[in-house]
Amino acid sequence: MRPFGNRFAICFVMVFISFVLLPVAAQDKPPYALQPIADGFTFPTAIVQPPTDMTRLFIADLSGKVSIVKQGELLATPFLDLSKQITAVAEGAGLHDIVFHPDYAKNGFFYVVYTLPDRDEILVRYQVSKDNPDVADADSAHLIMKIQHLTQFHYGGQLAFGPDGDLYWSMGDGAYKKSPAQNWKSYLGGILRLDVDHGDPYSVPTGNATTVQPTAKPELWAKGLRNPWRFSFDSLTGDLYIPDVGEASSEEINVLPAGTAGGTNFGWSFFEGNTPFKATDKTGLTFPVVTYAHDSGNCSIIGGYVYRGTALSALVGKYIFGDYCSGWMWSTYQKSANNWYTAELLPTKQHITTFGEDNAGELYMGAVGAVYKLVAAR
């Protein structure tokens, strides 16, 4: 199953990445490795820790379950099990993400996004059980928002609290032949920004896209995306990294500095990466800082994180990402103005599905069947 487009390539070899190509000799051993954390998953979609929690790792799976790895042990009882009430078929339908409220230690709130049997996508708030911190209160579901989605493709489905305390939610364009990504009256192909601390179920924060796009849905913050699979904020700088899965020829990474106002248009479906797709006018569009081609088995970018841990000093400040089909992982960072330096990191030989970050800044990778930690090779 591949929730990122319509291509099925499965080989892992070297790839061209925009701006820099660093070949890895066959005899060279990568300085990094993947340490197994837990297995038995269908398709991991999120790997996260609640704020201040250093002992538990929460893993969301497309099948509908959120599991806990506690002090290295996968607990038998899921934290939350939505498998009987969601659709987990086709490309990307299922449980897409879980994120914990910044004040989770006090209020016990967390949020999930998943697909309903009618293919619509919903954002729901839950609360942890009062009796057992390793089990959610299944009866605490509180609907925040529902978005109509008429296909089983391109859900996006990422959640993250930004430095401003607002909740950001990405939506794919649904893989429609006529993409709604340039239609500001549609949520699809965009990123929403919600204030979940005020209003019921939320309020619209100031500074969303309506400040520059008066016809935009009030919740929209950005548009022009095809299928943003795993965006993240740099935990140190607050910069926002948004990879977007391409159509026919290339994958891309977009970066917005912290504090960027709402209304950014990333260009799809006028452009795919830096290449004209349905238009040639670049006016008002923001283009990616890194792209790579659909060659050598690559087909679907999987967004990761800027590494801010301490165990892998050479990676500090570098953005780590991968490709679902080829299984390669790379690092990239801005070396100078308009110059992003990208290097091959590790051939995982896996179908990469997601990345995760713990509260110490260490990184994890989810692949079909299992979850791993990125460590130094021995």
Number of strands: 28
The oligomerization state is: single chain
Radius of gyration over C-alpha positions, nearest whole angstrom? 19 Å
Class by SSE composition = mainly beta
Low-confidence stretches: 6-27
Tell me the helix content. Answer: under 10%
Number of domains: 1
Distance between the termini: 33 Å
Name of the CATH class: Mainly Beta
Number of helical runs? 1
The CATH architecture comes to 6 Propeller
Largest sheet: 9 strands, mixed
Give the overall pLDDT as a whole number. Answer: 91
Question: Which range does the strand content fall in?
Answer: 35-45%
Shape type: globular
Order of helical and strand elements? EEEEEEEHEEEEEEEEEEEEEEEEEEEEE
- Tell me the CATH topology: Neuraminidase
CATH superfamily: TolB, C-terminal domain
